[in-house]
Amino acid sequence: MATTSKQYKGIGEDLWKGRAEKVNAELFALTYGALVVQLIQDYEDYAEVNKQLEKMGYNIGTRLIEDFLAKSNLGRCSDFREVGEVVSKVGFKSFLNISPSVTHGAPPSTSTSPRPMSTGSAPTGPSSGAYFTLTLDENPLAEFVELPEDALEGGLWFSNVLCGVLRGALEMVQMQVQAEFVSDVLRGDETTEIRVRLIKTLDEEIPVGDD
Fold first, then answer.
1. What is the pLDDT of residue 117?
2. Which residues pair with 101 in a beta bridge?
3. From the first residue on, what is the mean pLDDT of each consecutive set of 10 residues in the chain (211 residues)?
4. Do residues 89 and 99 touch, judged by C-beta distance below 8 A?
5. What's CA 10's distance to the chain center, in Å?
6. Among residues 18, 25, 7, 50, which one has the least CA distance to residue 151?
7. Which of 54, 96, 194, 195 is the Cys-Cys partner for 164 at CB 3.0 to 4.6 Å?
8. Pair 193, 136: CB distance under 8 Å
9. How high is the pLDDT of residue 146?
10. Local structure of 136: helix, strand or coil
11. CB atoms within 10 A of CB 106
12. 105: left (phi over 0), alpha (psi -120 to 50) or beta
């Protein structure tokens, strides 16, 4: 029998409660903020900082997925809609103690802003492929943060590490995705949203010598 949204929420809550190595939320936010500041000083280019944050997140995601699969004991998702449910209600809850709302389907045909997304891509209309959008009512990374005007103008997506985590984790379970912020309250938007698009399903690698 298929797992329901409510059951996924319960799994996520149980994983968070059972996590022994919880990090103090304030310390976590301040530490991440210091990392972003250091990257800005090192690269002096907000687009490059976005790339570095995404790359760091990707490396984190490829490692977190093993811990997640071992502790959640979840099987393979039947479709990309179910992936969205697991990511929002189990993944985010078990690691960050938040549960973003998730909507499924193609993005709107028009963008409210002409600015580039957090991956540097231009806003586009709907295209083929499955999507889900995560709306973060709260973002532990962005506590105590107010972006200066030059960061806003330079296109900094402060929490872009989350997009990398999603890309890295899903790649390890044979899904190549594009994950990007399309809005952020830190940038003056009404909501903070991450859009995840399935590019393709990757083939399982067959060990050398096996048929």
1. 67
2. 135
3. 67 64 75 96 97 97 91 88 93 91 72 58 57 96 94 97 97 96 96 96 62 46
4. yes
5. 20
6. 50
7. 54
8. yes
9. 94
10. coil
11. 14
12. left
* Residue entry with tokens 């891509």: 121
134/147 Cα distance (integer angstroms): 22
Instruction: Return the residue matching tokens 């968070």.
Output: 16
Q: What pLDDT sits at residue 8?
A: 74
170: amino acid identity, one letter: L
Measuring CA to CA, which residue among 115, 117, 137 is closest to residue 196? 117
What is the pLDDT at residue 210? 46
Q: Tell me phi and psi for residue 158, to 5 degrees.
A: -55, -40
Give first-to-last CA distance, the chain, whole Å. Answer: 33
Largest CA distance in the chain: 58
Q: H or E segment at 34?
A: helix 25-43
In whole angstroms, give the CA distance from residue 65 to residue 56. 15
Q: What is the pLDDT of residue 105?
A: 80
* pLDDT number for residue 193: 98
Q: Which two tokens stand for residue 184?
A: 């952020």
Residue 47 makes CB contacts below 8 A (sequence gap 6+) with 120, 154, 155
Tokens of 173: 């379970």
